[in-house]
Design goal:
Layout: E1 19-22, E2 25-28, E3 38-43, H1 49-52, E4 53-58, E5 67-76, H2 79-86, E6 97-98, E7 104-110, E8 122-125, E9 136-140, E10 144-147, H3 153-158, H4 162-172, E11 181-184, H5 190-201, E12 205-210, H6 216-226, E13 230-233, E14 254-257, H7 261-270, E15 276-279, H8 292-296, E16 301-304, H9 316-331, E17 339-343, H10 347-354, E18 363-367
Parallel strand pairs: 11-12, 11-14, 12-13, 14-15, 15-16, 17-18
Antiparallel strand pairs: 1-2, 3-4, 3-6, 5-7, 5-9, 5-18, 7-8, 8-10
Length: 368
């Protein structure tokens, strides 16, 4: 089987290695340590995720002296995961590959040169790393970030992409103070939900735009419960002067766009003079159109955000500190978003939901 030796499976195969006991638990001489067989979602070519992925059994791999063997606990299906499988994402692992880019697991064994992790620790890949859709994975110690075991497993599995994106975008582009306002489309996405809550914690108001669809009233109520000040469907904003709807809110200094097309234009209409719109996605696959007057008379700025650019080695510690902060908020119940835990064996069902085959669905999180 060509995929057997993909280097991201791992735990202990009993009887084939020597052990030494340390104060932190059992450590293994990695030259003799391998991992047991693992279930994994793999793809050998790019294409439609439901056509090119399959769930297979893989043989164990060697756990070298600097490696950590992790038993995966949970991993989400993100849109960027699907884009990688389709072959349209700018950064992709070489083929054949195991899917998944973030998740949480428990350390099962460590190589002899590993210094800061021990069996039983909970870890997440930070920066995110490919190959998370498998029951066991082996990667070097530097890939893993130890987190509190009190963290809810579904939040630990999903914290490194969407919530971190929300936090960085609120901090990296415009200096916002309590009483300021932001506007965003795609507000029901996990990034959108996190932006609402993180802004509210800082006393920042939010104006939120959602699609016209069945269940939009329920979506509005959900976002209001999270702390949204205003929620509008796109059709509600088909008015001559959009800012007449603001009532007691200030004009937003910062806007977020993950949709494109007309929805992006609505974000721009809300922005104050000198405001900034940050684009981090393009779900409609339509371009952003900006009027000449928006640049000349409103002096608007258009920026882009890609989390991958902030995953350089020199920014790892900064990102990990932010992740710890976000997980603390999740443990305290101050950061919430909708997810559905699904057994790894039901991957195909979770994939169908993630592809939109069954209508709007919560974020799918695979539980191992």
């Amino acid at each position: 089987m060509a995929l057997i030796m993909i280097r991201s499976v791992a735990t202990i195969r009993s009887g084939f290695f020597k052990l030494k006991r340390s104060s932190s638990g059992i450590r293994a001489f990695s030259s003799l340590l391998t991992s047991p067989p693992s279930k994994a979602v793999v793809y050998e070519r790019h294409g439609p995720p439901d056509a090119v992925t399959r769930l297979i059994e893989m043989e164990g791999v060697e756990v070298k002296e600097k490696d950590v063997c992790v038993k995966m606990l949970a991993a989400p299906i993100n849109p960027s995961d699907l884009n990688r499988i389709e072959g349209v994402y700018p950064v992709r692992p070489p083929l054949p590959a195991v899917g998944g880019y973030e998740g949480v697991g428990e350390v099962l064994s460590v190589g002899s040169a590993v210094k800061h992790l021990s069996p039983g620790d909970w870890v997440i890949p930070s920066p995110p790393s490919s190959g998370m859709w498998q029951t066991y994975t082996v990667k070097e110690e530097g890939v893993w970030h130890k987190i509190s075991k009190d963290s809810p497993v579904e939040y630990a599995a999903t914290i490194t992409v969407n919530p971190l994106t929300s936090l960085r975008m609120l901090q990296d582009f415009v200096t916002l103070n309590s009483g300021d306002c932001i506007v965003q489309n795609g507000a029901t996405s996990i990034v959108g939900q996190c932006i609402i809550q993180l802004a509210r914690l800082r006393g920042i108001h939010s104006i939120n735009i959602i699609r016209d669809r069945a269940g939009s009233d329920e979506a509005k109520e959900m976002l209001k419960r999270l702390g949204a000040d205003e929620v509008f469907t796109e059709s509600q904003l088909e008015v001559k002067n959009i800012k007449d709807l603001l009532t007691n809110l200030p004009e937003p200094a910062l806007g977020f766009n993950c949709v494109g097309g007309n929805s992006a234009s609505l974000v721009l209409k809300f922005l104050r003079h000198g405001g900034t719109m940050v684009t981090y996605g393009g779900m409609s696959k339509k371009p952003i159109t900006v009027s000449t007057s928006s640049f000349i008379f409103k002096d608007l700025s258009l920026r882009g955000f890609w989390l991958q650019k902030l995953m350089n080695p020199d920014k790892v510690n900064e990102s990990r500190n932010m992740i710890d902060h976000l997980l603390c908020l999740a443990r305290e119940g101050k950061l919430k978003y909708e997810m559905e835990l699904v057994s790894f064996d039901d991957f195909q069902s979770a994939l169908d939901k993630s592809l939109g085959k069954l209508g709007s669905q919560p974020k799918q999180v695979l539980k191992f």
